[in-house]
Amino acid sequence: MSNLLSIPLKKTYTIDVKEAIRKYLLEHGETHPDAVKSDINLWEQLRQCGIGGEIHYNRIDDMLRYQAHLTSILTKLPTDIQLEIPYAPVFSPSALPVTLRNLVFERAAVIFNLAALYSQLAGGEDRAVGDGIKRAAAFYQHASGALQFLRIYVLPKLVFSPEDEQQPLDLSTPVVQGLEWLMLAQAQECFWQKARLDNFKNSLISKLAASTSVLYQHAFNAINDARPPVKQLFPTDWLAHVEAKQHHFDAVAQYRKSREELEASRYGSELAHLTQALAGAKRAHDIARKGKASPAVRQDIQSLLEAVQKDFARAERDNDLIYHQDVPVASSLPSIPHAAVAQVTVPKELTNPNSIVASEDMIFSELVGWGARQAINIYYDRRKNLIQDELVTVSLQVQEEDERTLQELNLPGSLEALERPVGLPPSLLKKVEEVRLENGPVKIEAAIRDLGRMARQNMKILDEAMDILDHEVSEDEATRGTTSLNRPPSHEANVHLVEKEQRYRAILKQAAESDETIRTKWDQWEINITELTWDETDLEASIPSSTTIGTSVTPEVTGHARNLRVYLEDLDRLQSEREDIVRRAKKLAEVDDIRQRILKVAGGFERLGEVQPAMFEDVFDEELAKYDKFIKLMNDLQPRQEQLLNSIRAEHKLFIQSRKDDTTVKERERALQSLELSYHKYQEIVHNLEEGIKFYNSLITLLLQLKDACKQWCNERSREVHALSRSLHSVSVAENGNEVIRVETSPSTSGPLPRQVSALPPMDSNEWGFKSVPLPPGPTVKKTARR
User: Fold this and answer.
1) Contacts of 350 (CB under 8 A, 6+ apart)
2) pTM of the full structure
3) Which sequence ranges form a coiled-coil region, renumbered to this chain (predicted)?
């Protein structure tokens, strides 16, 4: 049996790559799944080679090649393509696996297993000979390097979503860093062993041992200082092994230093170092014995302890009888220098995946990279926002300002009342016809009913989601009355769902207030808007005529009216210019295809390099600069518009003063202006209703997702309780039958993934507290529940 530790491989199951890729490409991709059928097959083959098989040197290249292709895949696809990837905890291969929809999880697990493979190969070497020790040291250094690469470059990208109820604790930084230190310590131990085998000087062996002790101390601290759930992942004998090794090699360093002092005839110093060595060896012996470290480790420590005890007795006797040298106190002894020979060796195929796949076609090499595709989408979004914010919105705001100003001045109604003393002006007839054809009041009433129905439907879905949670709370409380549950109560566990519900309910309340505002506005303007649907004859009859004026229109009034009409035509021309600028910008956007340039720039990056949208900022700026000319043209119109509105206000003031005695015309103006305002209110109400219906249609999708999330969460909680009940029932049957029932749950790496019903440990797990003792009294049950 080896006196060093090997990391087990994380056990996994088959995954349905083909179906996940097919669905993703059909929904998001520009390529049909059939076009990448060979790539999908290659992915499945590489995974099979990269995760299965026996412990063999050839598997290193298989894992490195698969990792390289995963690096390429992650440049083409997002991390979540709805592909469920299961891996069992590293030290509990028979436990239910952690399943995540995350391609980075797959890459992290592969690199972890690569480190485990290196450690297994190292453990299989014959360290009784020098070449075997060298190979073992190299493997351990590579294992440490793979773990360091995993910790620094991969784990930061392993981001979990709120839906991930389980997380792989064995892929957390404390675990990986602890194993990284452990592998490096074992590599250093190999160098120490080689130096001892080659009969190197005691001074060098002492320094090598001191460095080995420090590395084991780092490994122990990284594991021991982790939070309890992480620390408890490790088998108890591993912690004892690492801590015992720390004190063992500290004792070895002191012992070899004592031999060096003996050779230099410093007998007092020899005895001081032997005293330290004896204390360290005893400490290591106690830890290994109590922690049930492997027999090989206990034997090594026992041999050292016996040697130290023998030399200590001899040195103490000789110094007392012959040399009579003073024995320094431990605090006065100089620290033993370190000789750190072992180095973290990251496999070059991890830092440069091209080195192992240089001549191969990468998986999905024909697909547009995910980063490049995101960059294309980002550019199109920015372009759309630029046109909308800088051109369309500005044009609409200016138009609204024009309309407000003209409404305040009763234009063009006052001019039309003067120019057309009877009947309806053509511009108003067109608007009236629009409302009549749309059957405006009926349209608004129907939309208001639809708005109310959708508001009630949205609220009903939200209430149903909360009813589901309330039912689960009742079940949880009833279960706690009969069973001790080791999990948070419902009101704590469902906080994330309740917070979402509260946000949505606040949004619905705000929307209801907006709906009420629309209904109030309709009540206020219903009569006026209904007038727009009257027959033309009835509408004309309702408008006062100005033909009964006793005096003719004065030249002064005519002149001011003519000036106002010219200004209004200029205002219309300005609006046409703005609309033309928007039209030209949109036409340019229709033919503006940045795809080829993005792909060309992306192709210039290092192969297999991670392409991020931020890398294309310069391209975005250059391409969006094409629209600066339209923004400038739009801004140049602003001073002309302001000057024109000022002219209209001033001329209108003169116009009003010149005809202040024409009461009949004023009445006609007010009537025409009222119809104009009714039309604008009609448009405003219709627009508000359309926006409200659109809002509820969008919100209902989110509410249905929340309802489904509540169902899934509650079903998971119920399954936990049912699984616990079945497990406890099995234990009860075992007690009554005077035997322990053992459930075999070890999965097959090539078989389908078993249905995950809870996070309960298997019945043969140590977590249940079963002990190999004669029955009765029988096993004790530690109730556990899923996190």
Assistant:
1) 64, 67, 111, 145, 146, 149
2) 0.63
3) 564-591
